[in-house]
């Protein structure tokens, strides 16, 4: 059985990692917007921002670490489809939370990677506008923390 103090600490670490990742994603967007750019409808020419690249990369790493911690420390709740239908409400909520953490991770990670990659070039680039990928990815990091904690709490409770 997991000590309540340890469980609270794990939740705080996951929240801190996700919130920090979210803040870094939003700050990366702000750093990107400070660079010179010329926009014409959907097309944009801009200088890449090394600061946005560093912040975006850090947000990606922290989001992944938070997700791995939440999944490893929550224990394994995967089961067959028959077991899902017969499972308790707590186990079903745990699996639903797990599903949403993976969906949110995929979307947030995709947005953060696209926004970060756009700032990895050593010269100006022109193409489709990549506005708000970093900030939306950052906001999804906050949402990820909610579902990760829901998963951790419900998975821990359903194991006991």
Q: List the strand order in the largest sheet.
A: 1-2-3
Order of helices and strands: HEEHHHEH
Q: Specify the helix fraction band.
A: over 70%
Sheet of most strands: 3 strands, antiparallel
Q: Describe the global form.
A: elongated
The termini sit apart by 7 Å
- The unreliable regions are none
What is the beta-strand fraction? 5-15%
User: For the CA atoms, what is the radius of gyration?
Assistant: 19 Å
Mean of all residue-level pLDDT scores = 85
Class inferred from helices and paired strands: mainly alpha
Helical run tally: 5
Number of strands: 3
Descriptive terms for the model:
160 residues, mainly alpha, three-stranded antiparallel beta sheet
Give a description of the structure:
The protein has 160 residues and is mostly helical. It is built from 5 helices and 3 strands. A 3-stranded antiparallel sheet has the order 1-2-3, with no helix packed on it. Strand 1 (37-40) and strand 2 (43-46) form a beta hairpin. Helix 4 (89-117) runs antiparallel to helix 5. The chain is elongated, with a radius of gyration of 19 Å. The model has no long low-confidence stretch (mean pLDDT 85).
